[in-house]
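Hi,

I'm pasting everything inline rather than attaching a file, because the server keeps stripping attachments. The sequence lines come first, and each chain or strand is labelled.
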Amino acid sequence: MARLRDMGRATAVVSVADVSSWDREADVVVVGFGSAGACTAIEAREAGAEVIVLERASGGGGTSANSTGELYLGGGTPVQKDCGFEDDAEEMYKYLMAASGPNPDEAKIRLCVDSNVEHFHWLVDHGVRFKHSYYGDGSYIPTDDCLAWSGSELNRRFAAIAKPAPRGHTAQREGIEAGSELMRSLCEATERSGAEILTDCRVETLVQDRDRRVLGVVARIDGEDRRIRARGGVVLCAGGFINNDEMVAHHAPWLRRCKMRLAVDGDDGRGIRMGLGAGGEAIRMDTACIVLPFTVPKKHIQGLMVNLKGQRFINEDAYQTEVGAAALRAQDGQVLLVVDDEIYERPFPPVEFAGVGDTIEELERELEMPEGALQHTVAYYNEHAARGEDPIHGKTAEFLKPLTKPPFAALDYRVEHSLWGAFTMGGLHTSVDGEVLTADGDAIPGLYAAGRTTSGLAAQGYSSGLSLTDCTFFGRRAGRAAAGQAAR
Amino acid sequence: MARLRDMGRATAVVSVADVSSWDREADVVVVGFGSAGACTAIEAREAGAEVIVLERASGGGGTSANSTGELYLGGGTPVQKDCGFEDDAEEMYKYLMAASGPNPDEAKIRLCVDSNVEHFHWLVDHGVRFKHSYYGDGSYIPTDDCLAWSGSELNRRFAAIAKPAPRGHTAQREGIEAGSELMRSLCEATERSGAEILTDCRVETLVQDRDRRVLGVVARIDGEDRRIRARGGVVLCAGGFINNDEMVAHHAPWLRRCKMRLAVDGDDGRGIRMGLGAGGEAIRMDTACIVLPFTVPKKHIQGLMVNLKGQRFINEDAYQTEVGAAALRAQDGQVLLVVDDEIYERPFPPVEFAGVGDTIEELERELEMPEGALQHTVAYYNEHAARGEDPIHGKTAEFLKPLTKPPFAALDYRVEHSLWGAFTMGGLHTSVDGEVLTADGDAIPGLYAAGRTTSGLAAQGYSSGLSLTDCTFFGRRAGRAAAGQAAR
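And the predicted assembly:
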């Protein structure tokens, strides 16, 4: 338990009876200054609240600033329209409901989808720039373009349910780190809003009364514990828990095997722990965004993702997070991508060869797979791919090409040998207004949360950009709700 | 949220400042009278504590009384010895560590394994009878015999790690419901111990002081709320949450598809919710025991478990809970068992035919599988099975037999069409002494838990009998620990 204890006892809420006086006061106290915290603060200010933002790092941005800066937005945004794509809220709703696993949060999806165009304009009005241009695929956009396919919309399975549209909207910036640009805009907007921002200030725990109402926080400022009262509410926007080994071990131990934690240091579950300490419930704690980055170049989707027995287990055109989740859980992260000379290009990020052969038989032998297994997988696939079919896994015709041009190779995408990325998607259970709920479904008065401190839009499935949309959209709602409490 | 609210606000802990007087008092208050509650009460009494057991049903037993009455015990019990099986704690430890997924609770496994023989004697001393006889396989024993293989010990994968031994110990009773006999013994022992037992008495919530110490409970007795003080501690032994739809939806939604909930009504997560309300953390909430009951007759393990595309995905000799978990999560519960006329016998529980054919090709067509897929699966399997090999999935030689005798059939084990069983394995995070821990790893003073209200011995894997061993062994420890607090 050493590691956790070093992280401080976030759950040890302080009784208001032990607080003799408050050092500071505001209507809304926002814990964390990533995208969720920024949007919370801005909305709360615009609703007339006095706002203090407390950030433990030395500046704003959080994990959002390290991200690709892509938001999942649709329903007919100006960018979609200018790029010639039709979309409507209903189709987006159907896609998200289908792509979010067995228990999607319908209320959040409904509300978010119906407000997507408004939310796009709100972001623009607050300084976020989107070029009205179409890039193509994926969430790693090397140019300053905007619109991209960032989920499984075009897959047979989903295209049959909802009319596809590209919905990844990346903030305008040359290079794959547009998150810094997104957060530059949102941090500036927060400053302009008049919210007070305190950095290098770690919130230790919450202050509660005996009716469970949250009245404020205890924060470490300049080496001293300060009590800061929140008249309307405290909003926890403190990120996820991928950097808390103990929490990951308890809730999603397989994530420990992903090399790249898509996170900043602060993603140690502190916000979630504070919420638990106050009596909240954390849900879907096993869920995560797991990125198996094998789709650059896109031609590699024409390859075959197989386990170490030479068996396919998924349609390779499923979005890379869907492939990642299936590969990590059901295949123990032990997967290879089989390509031929026609489709092979140097992949990004780089990956090693697990084996090469002039024939599939030779490749199979080099990989020490069961005799005949990979040969059959490839032969069966090739036979049907030539007819534009993939009867077992249903890959879309566009990506079906028999693998026939030697030499053949298997790229080593085993989780320990390549650059899988992960961040957690589980967190506090919240209402659509960001109220933190108990396991009985009751709101804890005065306590709100948004972003990766909560379980948000994406229940079990993940399309790129959903997390930033969740953070910004439901951050706004939490800010408004907390401000409303102060005004009462 | 209606359903949850009807279940009462377990999380709404009462402040001791609002308790003007106590209606009753004891050293240890045990919430729930299943196997965990009974063993808690007995040990606490034997440690000299005054004990009250509160049970919401009209009598003791809980889910344990509806179970098969099988405990997972090893390390050289008298039954194992008399039946001619060698076992030692180290081998049992190695098996459990390997079979419990990526993050086993090593401390609990270590302690339990080292005390297993002592625990066996304790159970016998408290009236539980075990016939010193060997039955064979499984957890549904129709005779009054005792010892059985109840996990994956003999699988190639585990046999390479730990010397196999049968460890399922079923209490002596004719028929598959030996749980009632186990609980008759333990309930009688509890009565003999002098613990006071109150039935038809639902605990509503906990009473806490502002330092988070749990001082007692509020219980509904004869239509009135009664405050019962616990000088040493409250021990939550109130079962799992499979009968709480909302909690299942939030933590393990796929379980809703299993028809048979291995539970009593009380398994509505109330104990877990009380612990959360007091600031505890629930962990591994996605884990469960998922039973896909396809192994009676045992010859059916020689069949091929396939998905609807005719693909195998596991060695069929994996324990039925391991097959169940893999089939439900990664195959969406859509699986069939292919058999030939030589191995087919009427299965128990009964199951429908999904298809029959004189050839595999005909069967494949009838099942509307992709052309050639099942044919290849069977041909490849047969070719290797004839040589005693299963290169892809590694089924043990004993169960390898080419499927060649027509007619062939597919038994319909799709989750919606057959009798899958499930109960939850996630719950409150506890120390080896049953202390309920916060998300920071600190014990909540005065609060303990055991059994399915906690996340116990089996982290991600499940061998039959582990839950009753967990309930009884760690119930005892929690009872002792709480009694010790009263004595201080």
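Chain A has a mean pLDDT of 95.

If the labels don't parse on your end, tell me and I'll reformat.
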